[in-house]
Amino acid sequence: MTIALIRALDSVTKSLLDKIPNTIATSDGRYLATQINKKIRKFIPEVNKSRWADLDLWSEEPATWSSSNSSLKLNEKERKKQDIIYELYLTEKHHCQVLVILQQVYQEGLRINGIIDEAKRNELIPPVLDALLDFHLNFLRQLKRKRLETEIVDSVAEIIYSEFEKGERNQTAVYAYTEFCSKYDQCGRLYDEWMIKNAELRKFFDQYEQDSTYKGRTFKMCLLLIAQRLTKYPVLVEKIAEVESGSAKEESMRAHQAVKKFAMHVNNEITKIEVNKRWDRIRSQIDHSSKGRFGPNDFFTYDDLILNGSDEERRIICIEVIIVLFDDILIMLTNSSNNKYVFLDRGSGSTVIALNKLLVREVPRSTKLFFLLSDDPCPDLFVVSFASKTDVDQWKKAIEMSKNMAPKH
To answer: Residues in domain DH (predicted)?
Structure first.
């Protein structure tokens, strides 16, 4: 009787339990654990790391030097100089902010949240931000130290020259900028594509791009500001040189040449990459059976693009040169291993060119000129890249003027 009653109660209890929903079922438990784990791993950007804590990157500063030093009695020229030096300092600080945001907010956020894998992260954000930060934090640190020494800064030319011409971080920064700027367009395209296809990535970027903490530094804005930064230094340093005089002016002009050379070095490296990419596209479409005449009795084939005796391909070479224009000739020089200028070796191509045999043609929508040498029986053609469109226009005009004035031989 007792056993029967217990069994009856068990069956009633079981039927009741079957009708009562579990508070946490297996699937619910997994979901809850996932949510708790996500909250524990919530991403918080580390924008105040010790690496740059001494620079007070996020502190507010006056817009101009004059606005916070109006009581100092200075002539207009000196006040203008202080404003430009301060502008260099302040824009360098803003540039460091951009680098930190791109690295600590966007790059680290994508990594910690596991939104895309490492290979895709490196496609979207070139992995060179550490090198760029190293270069620019050091430069900013020196500018800040100089400003703290005195209210009126005598010169920053030596700081600029030492960092951009011969600093220990110089070559690494050139490589980093080359890598970053050469992939700028690709990064922008991938961002646009993935924002459409990947909802989680879109949600991540929307969250941080709309966060007022980061002062409107959207992902694409960060890319643009970093890619443009090297174009700003020559303008600012030239402005400083314009208000200097005597030996100080000479130092500023030397600093100006250093920042121009740095930017041109990066530009030349990017040009090499672009030229080789174009050549790869052309080479892939060359008919291997076609032949080209090479001299009166010789032919050149696709296989001849391989250097004799090796598997190495011929390379398209970009060389940094010094061009000197005389009233009847143009010469091309380059740096030798002992830092002396030597005549550029172009193999059988001329590097001393009679102006009456030189034709100059502009390459549309670029900072390049075609140099065509009508030197019978060996005509020649090569491309010269310049730092800016202004330089292209000046050189084209100067060559044409010299040709018109050249002695008739």
So the answer is: 80-269
